[in-house]
């Protein structure tokens, strides 16, 4: 038998392992002492001793195995402790790496945010550069036009002061005055002759904006959306009573009162690839016909209870104005129709403000003034007025027109009608955009013919034509020659409107001369606004129809709105009042975009009424 004992090497054991080995050694020592005691007893049988000795040997062997198991367990424990230390080191390393990853993620997010911010700033800078470039282009165009207007006004001033002594006295007075010139500037050599441009709509042009929204024939004369075949119709043709046409003056015949206010007119130089428009070309174009108008003191605007209101300060474009909402026929929930209705009402109010400012207070119509109007443009102006005012009850052509002209309220609306009808038929049609280039003129005319030939039910074909026409107008409005072309066309249309309005303005004597001059400046603002509205109409890709109610027809509350009578509309209709004059047209919108055709009545016609 082998008994265990502690050795010096056992000092390096673990405390529990060392204690276990110490107890094992003591146990073996006790077993060995027990065996020795049994062998000393003489009465113990030999067989028993042999069996007892065998059991003791097995017991000692078991203690040895237990000690070995404890040693193995201690070794594994040491390895586990070492592994634990390594695991802790790995955990610390992982934590460090995790913190580094989080730091990298944060830096990545910061870099990504910085990149996004820089990209947004870059896009914003690009948009701003484009915006500033466009502003620069527009400012340059506006500067060129304003410079041309200044030159025209200087030429106008010198033309009006053609006497050298009068000019010297005026210059001396202006030099001594501390008051800045309001609307009048000096310079430019005089001497260029007057040749107004009278390019009205050609016979055969339609009054419908797109020339494709026609129903033809006659209506019930109640101001419905259909074109009327009698007075108030929008169909063109040779001039005769009962057909709505723009005023067409005659260049060789003009009134003395208008002659001094017409600047020199020069032909439009069409752009070509060989000779692009330059600044020098712009300076040689025809006059703009006006600039910033003079400020006028309030004089008290005369108007009825339902008419558009306007203030008398500044130009028509600067005046605050309101329009009666009763003219709107569109559904209030239809934002597109309401927007167009407000657009047209604003323009109608602008024209009304101009007419009420300059034509309400006029002297009593004298025989020479009547004869002067009748002789204007070889009688063309008087024929134009009679065509609007003619009724079946007139014994002499023009009796109704004279009655309207003699009444201040009616006169204002009559002159508003003269202006609006001419603008609708001459500026709001494709013919108002002629003379840009031969190619575009030919294509615009061809598109107009194609639109007239297309059946109203073929919306896709109509829309393709409208889209192409909108692109052409966009090119004429935003192209490199847009500013020069706009200046030329606005001047051309302004000359026509001046020829129409000049006979109704005071003769150029004393302070009346300044009023007449200011009226022409304000008329230029109206012409410019009409041109810009015409561009919007063409580029909207919609079709607009204008309906003028005939004089003498029974009033209909559904399609007409009285502008001079506060009485309830249904009562007026029940009492069978009749239309004395249609001042503003009814407007209908047609939209061929999409799968269905949409037709909307957006404005009623504004009318003056008379008892039956």
Automatic annotation (TrEMBL):
<protein>
    <submittedName>
        <fullName>3c1c125b-bded-4642-9d05-df9f32c32def</fullName>
    </submittedName>
</protein>
<feature type="coiled-coil region">
    <location>
        <begin position="70"/>
        <end position="149"/>
    </location>
</feature>
<feature type="compositionally biased region" description="Low complexity">
    <location>
        <begin position="173"/>
        <end position="182"/>
    </location>
</feature>
<feature type="region of interest" description="Disordered">
    <location>
        <begin position="173"/>
        <end position="240"/>
    </location>
</feature>
<keyword id="KW-0175">Coiled coil</keyword>
<feature type="compositionally biased region" description="Polar residues">
    <location>
        <begin position="272"/>
        <end position="283"/>
    </location>
</feature>
<feature type="region of interest" description="Disordered">
    <location>
        <begin position="254"/>
        <end position="326"/>
    </location>
</feature>
<feature type="compositionally biased region" description="Low complexity">
    <location>
        <begin position="204"/>
        <end position="224"/>
    </location>
</feature>
